[in-house]
Amino acid sequence: MLLAQLATSMKLLVEIGNTSLKWAPLDAELPGPMVAARHFGSLPIDVLASWEKLESVDGVLVASVGPASVLDAVSSATAAYWQCPLERIESKGEAWGVQIAYQEPARLGVDRFLALIGAQWLAERPDLLAKAGPDPMRAEPKSATAVTATTHPDSEPPQTPEQGCATLVIDAGTAITFDALLADGRHRGGQILPGIAMLRASLLQGTRMPPHQAQDHYTPWGTDTGPAISAASLQAPAALAERLRSALQQETGKVPRLIITGGDADRLAPLLRRAVHLQPDLVLMGLARFA
Ligand SMILES: Nc1ncnc2c1ncn2[C@@H]1O[C@H](COP(=O)(O)OP(=O)(O)OP(=O)(O)O)[C@@H](O)[C@H]1O
Ligand SMILES: CC(C)(CO)[C@@H](O)C(=O)NCCC(=O)O
Ligand SMILES: [K+]
């Protein structure tokens, strides 16, 4: 009886952002299939419905930069369904070979902290990179955990990141964060930009622009309001990514690896001029290390 319970019990990994909740069961050492859902400030009904069916959860690990109301709801569901401990992970100065650059590491968003830990894990364990997708240059850009080649018209010839290179970690969510991780695990620092939706919304809020349609527009020259805004909201973060990648290459003398995650990762990836590794569950990978 006890053995059967042990064999089927599992841990859940949960990330709460400003827009979405993402979760996965822990599968051995890695996150299993990830589910992402918009939370609108509470626990999404689909998530509740799937959790209700899970019987033997023996621990829940949560990382949150989102509303307290969502964390409270996760906590209530944990108590109601499984009566097991909920552990909240927070940023700290050093963990799993990563040293955080912030003077006050607790001020770094825990999603950035965990993405760095996930990226360091991928750097140390190329076999995990291999598991995430087949050939980096052939995988489909939209697939769940694939590695994608760039489709940018001015693509530079693919340059495989060298052994011992640095990594630029991008999380394209409600906000877009860029973090540099040196080969020895030192976090160099990073930047925070409004996300694609927020870039568009801020223009509507701050101006008297006429109503317009903003569909993703990948060419440089917009010939109406919608395309002009849409193009800028995609190309601004892509341009910053290129700029930071160049800076990191200049500093380290090696071609860095680029890893991208977050709800908008596959909208940005096609705009990047060099190959980028798409890892939708990067933050949950970092969280899995604490399980
Ligand atoms: N179905 C969707 N619902 C909501 N946002 C979506 C959806 N598909 C793509 N997006 C985009 O994903 C972005 C949110 O990304 P994500 O879900 O990763 O955010 P988050 O992790 O909650 O954010 P953060 O961690 O920055 O607070 C939005 O800016 C939006 O442009
Ligand atoms: C920037 C976001 C919103 C991205 O999710 C999050 O990481 C956060 O709230 N960070 C705190 C500020 C910081 O990282 O410096
Ligand atoms: K995030």
CATH topology of the largest domain: Nucleotidyltransferase, domain 5
Bound molecules: adenosine-5'-triphosphate, pantothenoic acid, potassium ion
CATH class of the largest domain: Alpha Beta
Superfamily at the CATH H level of the largest domain? ATPase, nucleotide binding domain
The low-confidence parts are: 1-5, 133-150
* Mean pLDDT over the full residue set: 89
- Cα end-to-end separation: 24 Å
Q: What is the C-alpha radius of gyration, as a whole number of Å?
A: 20 Å
Order of helices and strands: HEEEEHEHEEEHHEEEEHHEHEH
Total domains, how many? Answer: 2
Approximately what portion of the residues adopt beta-strand conformation? 15-25%
Helix/strand/pairing class, anyone? alpha/beta
- Please report the total strand number as a whole number: 14
Which CATH-level-2 architecture of the largest domain?
Answer: 2-Layer Sandwich
Helix percentage range = 25-40%
Biggest β-sheet strands, sense, barrel: 6 strands, mixed
